Amino acid sequence: MTTIQSRKMLIDGELVNASNGATLPAENPTTEQVIGDLPDATAEDVDRAVAAARRASPEWSGTPWTQRGRLLRDYADLLDEHRDELAELDALDAGLPVASMRADVTSAANEIRYFAGLAGETKGQTIPSGPDQLTYTEFVPYPVVARIVPFNHPIKFISSKVAAALAAGAPVVAKPGEQSSLSALRLAELVKDLFPVGVLNIITGSGATAGAGLSGHPDVPRVAFTGSVPTGARIMAAGAPTIKHVSLELGGKNPMIVFPDAEAERAAVASVAAMNFARSMGQSCGSSSRVFVHRDVKDRFVNALVKRLSELKVGDPMRDDTDMGPIAFRAHYEKVCSYVEAGIEEGATLAHGGKRPAGLDTGFFIEPTAFTDVTMDMRIAKEEIFGPVVSVLDWDDYDEMIAQANDVEFGLTGNVWTNDISQALRTARHIDSGYISVNGTGKRPTGSPFGGFKSSGLGKESSLDELLSYGRNKSVTVIL
Question: Reduced to 3 DSSP states, what percent helix, strand and coil does the chain have, rounded to the nearest 5?
Fold first, then answer.
């Protein structure tokens, strides 16, 4: 059994345990064995991290953007240098396929470099105000940013989602999901001496203590959270007493719409990629988990979908040829299985999967699963499963289909497959979501703003919008 040496949090430039010595176990979802532990940060630890960030704020916000950009590029280089090691930690700790995690590290490094180059956009402007006065604006970074990320892309999120705030001149206290924190703790070791003391702090622990302590802390004016809708709502409530600036990237129940003129087989293969079966076992807020297929091409689509799913290799995430590993942790595995049972009980047709793969008797494994004959009154059509389960709904009336596509609390992404550009643009406008892909898999170009409508969140990420969200505009008028 692989075990991981105990590692420490990064607070105020030092690697430390929780102040009371408390830890949480790290369980390998492939073997169901504990492979290490992580500090379970206390309220005192949160206070120390926040205080360190506030002390670092004057120096960091006053650092020329070119120097901040240089340090961020060094940060990206550090990720590239340790790509294999970090990817293997995520494969062990979260069950994510190691090849996909290498791609995650590379993606994170690229996003960090993007924000390094964008740092100079934190600039003000002059406003015409007459011959006897000068009016200008100045970008003022927040003194502390709390960045709280989930379990599903551990190293990618904990490393890249601090980049925009750091580029903007705002020190960060970052917290990963407690179910997959080992790569974050290794990152803490790697960056310990990279940034000035207190500029980047990484703490681990439970959401109930560390996460809630950060999001409600009176000295944290800016909170950015990625995760579930219920937790996002609690963070908004925690920020209300001190009027925090909160941004949220939350859940999705995203529609993919296949028109009769689309090449059904090609769309089916794309739907597997858009569902993130092979990258994260469907554990992605952007997954296209509802596919609305026109009845004229439904049979061809379903046949091609089942064929592609049957080709996916489920197994040890440490192997390069593995497409799907286990679900990240036990409670989530049980939740996903309960949705499969609900789909069967409510009358959907199980077209593929739905059970533990043969020969994998240990670990939180489930086959890639597809339901057909799904209707919008079923739980699998309404609720976010966040696992490898896709629902196929058939349609022949456009207006009814659009109403069903929008008939959920979420509005994160949408995907349209058609060869008619007018139809594509019209449908993209009608889908009530924040990001739309046409004839693709949902993959976003660098710099494209990402964020949802409705309960899927507030604000935009991975773009200039995010960079500017980590500061405020101050207006100054000088009488000449």
Answer: 40, 20, 40
Catalytic residue among 27, 111, 178, 285: 285
**Does 285 qualify as catalytic in the annotation?**
yes
- CA 55 to CA 257: how far, in whole Å? 51
Contacts of 134 (CB under 8 A, 6+ apart): 126, 477, 478, 480
Q: Using CA of residue 213, residue 215, residue 218, residue 223, what is the dihedral sign?
A: positive
Torsion 110-114-115-117 (CA) sign: positive
pTM (2 decimals)? 0.97
Residue 347: Cβ within 10 Å count: 12
**394 in helix, strand or coil?**
strand
Within 283-340, strands assigned E span 290-294
Class of the domain covering 9-250+456-479: alpha beta
Instruction: Using DSSP, state whether 436 is helix, strand or coil.
Output: strand
Question: Where are the strands (E) in 344-408, listed by range?
Answer: 349-352, 369-372, 389-395
The CATH fold of domain 255-445: Aldehyde Dehydrogenase; Chain A, domain 2 (3.40.309)
Buried b (16+ CB within 10 A) or exposed e, 348-361: beebbbbeebeebe
Taking a C-beta distance cutoff of 8 angstroms, is the pair 473, 139 a contact?
yes
DSSP secondary-structure letter at 220?
-
In the chain, what are the domain boundaries?
9-250+456-479, 255-445
Of 27, 178, 249, 466, which residue is the catalytic one? 249
Amino acid letter, residue 310 = S
Q: How many angstroms separate the CA atoms of 288 and 184, rounded?
A: 28
Q: What are phi and psi of 59, to 5 degrees?
A: -65, -45
Blockwise average pLDDT, block size 10, the chain, 480 residues: 81 98 97 96 98 98 98 98 98 98 98 98 95 97 98 98 98 98 98 98 97 97 98 97 98 98 98 96 97 98 98 98 98 98 98 97 98 98 98 98 98 98 98 98 94 98 98 97
